């Protein structure tokens, strides 16, 4: 019986968020930056790119997103990194 190899999944392009704000959130004793913005919540594992108004574009992978009253709060897997 032949085994078929699956082709690697193409990575989706990052989603660009305009007008977000960094918000500190805590999980246990660890405080991490989260992103709050107006709009729909992204799916888990989605890569976001955003400029929180400081002229630096950041990138992060969505761990969890909560949407309420038209605002979305996103926490990230690992670190949020500035793009060069």
Strand pairing plus helix content: what structural class? mainly beta
Mean pLDDT: 87
Please count the beta strands (DSSP E, at least 2 residues each).
6
Order of strands across the biggest sheet?
1-4-5-6-3-2
How many DSSP H or I helices?
Answer: 0
Helix-strand pattern: EEEEEE
Give the structure's gist in a few sentences.
The chain is mainly β and 84 residues long. It has strands at residues 15-18, 21-27, 30-38, 47-51, 58-68, 71-82.
Pick out its properties:
84 residues, mainly beta, globular
What can you see in these coordinates?
- There is one protein chain.
- This protein is an all-beta fold.
- Helix content is 0%, strand content 57%.
- The protein has no helices and 6 strands.
- The protein has strands at 15-18, 21-27, 30-38, 47-51, 58-68, 71-82.
- Strands 1-4-5-6-3-2 form a 6-stranded mixed sheet, with no helix packed on it.
- Strand 5 (58-68) and strand 6 form a beta hairpin.
- The mean pLDDT is 87.
Give the topology:
Blueprint: E1 15-18, E2 21-27, E3 30-38, E4 47-51, E5 58-68, E6 71-82
Parallel strand pairs: 1-4
Antiparallel strand pairs: 2-3, 3-6, 4-5, 5-6
């Amino acid at each position: 019986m032949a085994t078929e190899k699956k082709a690697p999944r193409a990575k989706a392009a990052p989603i660009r968020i305009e007008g977000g704000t960094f918000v500190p959130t805590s999980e246990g004793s660890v405080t991490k930056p989260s992103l709050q913005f107006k709009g729909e919540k992204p799916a888990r594992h989605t890569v976001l790119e955003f400029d929180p108004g400081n002229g630096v574009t950041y990138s992060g992978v969505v761990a969890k997103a909560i949407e309420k009253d038209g605002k979305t709060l996103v926490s990230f897997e690992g670190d949020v990194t500035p793009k060069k």
